[in-house]
Amino acid sequence: MKSFLINKTGLLAFFLLTFTSCKDVLEEYNPSGLTAETVYSTPEGFETLVNAAYTYQRWWYGKEEAYNISETGTDIWTSGSGEVYRDLTQYLNLQGSNAALTSEWREFYAAINLCNGGIARIDKAGLSAALRPIREGELRFLRAFYYWHIVETWGGVHFTTQETNGIVSTANRTPVETFYNQIFEDLKYAVANLPVTQAQYGKVTKGAAQAFLARMYLTRNMNKEALEMAQAVITSNTYKLEANYADLWKMSNLKTKEAIYVVDYAANLAINDLVNTTFNPYGHSRGSNNGHLLFLMKYDDRPGLVRDIVNGRPFNRYMPTRFLLDLYSDNDARYEGSFMEVWLANSTSRPAGMNIGDTAVYCTRKEIPDAFEATRKYQTFDRSKIYNANGTTKDNLRYPTLSKFMDPTRANLNEAQSARDVFVIRLAEVYLIAAEAQMKLGNLQAAADYVNVLRTRAAKPGKSAAMQITSTQVTLDFILDERARELAGEQIRWFDLKRTGKLVERIKAYAPDNAVNLQDHHVLRPIPQTQLDAVTNKTEFSQNQGYQ
Asked: Which residue numbers delimit the RagB/SusD domain (predicted)?
């Protein structure tokens, strides 16, 4: 299929130019001047191929395009005033021309082609008998990983396990079940052959393959298998929940034992994935992790405040729905561990009587009496100032800000890149997978027990008993609420709502700004128009239903 399946010469050029993007983590080899066949047939060159297969994850995890695809357009996020892809968030004339979808489609299929080529060539790579199954396990995991993103986003689109060596101008329509058969086959191989730990940080392990396989089983309603795989991860004692939820998001704690699989970003931003015409022409226009920019409210035009490193650079892209803020009880420390409500004065120009370090702005999900507000020197944006009575947005500039991804270690206040690693799968999600599987199997008390592990961790001091749930409270909607409380912003929400058949229902119920243009066909995204224009078999490979 022209333009989304890259030929092997192009991949070799990509290797030569971009492998330094993660050299602090993955050892690399620059085989300058060699042909693709020569490179792939040496152990050193094959390592380069495997390492390159990981890099495509950076086009999704920590990038604005994929936050819009995976988090916004759900029940828990809507558009801030700086929103770029409002068609994804509010389904406003969403079509195949969307640039975010176009970029991700291109990169995912390039990644698939690389994985296919590596799996096909591995027997001739000269790897040792011990190393060969590990590297194949990595490539199979990555192929399953990329194909899951593709099939859940676009449905039964193009599928192949063969490497494309030249330009292909036709594409196939493959049933979703075929995708998942391959995903399960690849992940089972990965589970059987990957080690418990890897020397190089960021490489997939047995536990990561098990956790992702548990997620896949749950997606396909294979609940017994999902439970067994989740339990294998939980009982392995390889991973451990952080005692304090807020500690998960400290820049000093990126290698937390709770993280099962991560997409790593180097502290040296120059060797991440920012586009560079000389060294990395295939890189991203912004590079590194951008999550710290996207959820921040506009604070730096308020009295007593100027932009600084600690409060971040506010792109003001996404804001929480009122529903999301209301999900957290006053006993739940995950609210304070996830959201920021107070901004402290940091400007030399301040209102009379306000000192450096005093509260300058307070944005809260609660209602503050007008009489009390009038006695404060700081500005207050409370519930009725941020949201209308029906839950629609009144002020999309000021709101409680998701603080999980903020990075006070950036070199300067305008730095758009962050070295924060992205937690793709945490142990907390595995507990939620186990809970949902138990619920679907009819074991409601066992489901509640798994949920209560997380709610005990989330409880404020002295509130553990109040945070516990009973078996009678366990429903699919409750588990989706709990997943929102635990995983908000972590690039999984759209997939959760889709796999449970709740996307349209819950957007209409809880995200009125996103519901105006919502239709049933939005459970799939439109295929990029550039790809439809490129194929010659347009009758067989056409746009997803409901899109132009």
From this structure: 311-547
Using one digit for the tens of pLDDT, what is the confidence trace for 323-352? Answer: 999 999 999 999 999 999 999 999 999 999
Query: Residue 29: which pLDDT band, with cuts at 50, 70 and 90?
Result: very low
Cα torsion through 21, 23, 27, 33, rounded to 10: 50
- The pLDDT of residue 19 is 32
Closest C-alpha to 489, from 319, 284, 257, 250: 319
Residues 403, 296: Cα–Cα separation, whole Å: 8
The DSSP bridge partners found for residue 319 are: 78
Q: 261 pairs with which residues across the strands? A: 425
In the three-class reduction of DSSP (H, G, I as helix; E, B as strand; rest coil), residue 343 is classed as: strand
Asked if 35 contacts 12 with a C-beta cutoff of 8 angstroms, the reply is yes
User: 167: pLDDT confidence band, cut at 50, 70 and 90?
Assistant: confident
Strand partners, 340: 401
Assess contact for 91 and 522: CB atoms under 8 A.
yes
pTM to 2 decimals? 0.94
**Helices and strands: H and E segment counts in the chain:** 23, 9
34-73 pLDDT, tens digit each: 566 777 899 999 999 999 999 999 999 999 999 999 999 9
CB-count exposure of residue 369 (10 Å: 0-12, 13-18, 19+): exposed
Residue with tokens 């399960």: 184
Gap between the Cα atoms of 138 and 119, Å rounded: 10
Res 149 pLDDT > 90: yes
* Closest of 534, 525, 531, 523 to residue 95, by C-alpha: 525
Give φ, ψ of 427 to 5 degrees: -60, -35
For the segment 410-444, what is each residue's pLDDT rounded down to a tens digit?
999 999 999 999 999 999 999 999 999 999 999 99
Give per-residue burial for 65-93: e unless 16+ CB within 10 Å, then b.
Answer: bbbbbbbbbbbbbbbbebbbbbbbbbbee
Residue 81, both tokens: 């005033």
- Residue 306 CA to residue 283 CA, distance in Å, equals 32
Report the residue count for the chain.
Answer: 548
Mean pLDDT of the chain: 93
428/469 Cα distance (integer angstroms): 17
How would you class 277 by CB atoms within 10 Å of its CB: exposed for 0-12, middle for 13-18, buried for 19 or more?
Answer: exposed
Backbone φ, ψ for residue 507 (5° rounding): -65, -45
Given a contact cutoff of 8 angstroms between Cβ atoms, the answer to whether 271 and 280 are in contact is: no
- Is-contact 187 226, C-beta < 8 A? no
Element spanning 425, H or E: strand 422-426
Which pair of structure tokens corresponds to residue 321? Answer: 């729905």
Structure tokens at 350: 């301040």
Q: What single DSSP character describes residue 491?
A: S
Q: How far apart are CA 196 and CA 238, in angstroms?
A: 8
Furthest-apart CA atoms within the chain: distance in Å: 77
What SS3 string covers 259-325?
EEEEECCCCCHHHCCECECCCECCCECCCCECHHHHCCCCCCCCCCCCCCCCCCCCCCCEEECHHHH
